[in-house]
Amino acid sequence: MSSLLLRGFALGFAVAASPGPIFFLCLRRTLLRGRLYGLISGLGVATADGIYAAVAAFGLAAVTTAVAGGRRPLAVIGGAALIAIGARILVQRRQEPGAEATTTRAGLAWAYLSTLGLTITNPATILSFAALAATLGLGAGTGLVKPAVLVAGVLLGSAAWWCVLAVAASSLRGRVTPAVIRGISTCSGLAIAILGMLAIYSAFS
Length: 205
Description:
By secondary structure, this protein is an all-alpha fold. Helices cover 81% and strands 0% of the residues. It is built from nine helices and no strands. The longest helix has 29 residues, at 145-173. The relative contact order is 0.26.
């Protein structure tokens, strides 16, 4: 069981740490709004990872097939959302650290739900976890304990990465200049928008 937990942890950490639009989004939120916003945003990703890991580990083949079969609409929805977020970041790139430092429940809820939704619309996530479950021999007929341990490991691993990112980025928050923030915002906005375009392109290629 401990070995399965560690494998799940390693997978969750590796999937979360993969460079992508969510990384840039959470990094920018942490630099602009502080550690809590970055962490809550990351926990939204971890929740989506946990959901997809559970679908794969518990052998819900019908759901896995439906998600994989619906890759095109999911990619289009996710890509369009990324383009919109990237454009919004570019418009707001002159924003300085602390400009939106006021913490509100609505702001935290949006931080969580936005990253949860963006990750859910990425079919590649569930395919990664489905491949792991098949490799470990998990699925129908293996009971509930082993899949649950794997899912717990994935959740812990993904959450651990976002904690590391939030703490590391927030430690630099007071040292970055407005010019650096504008540069990060410009780069992250462009990267997120371009990745959104690529997601839509890949859906029809």
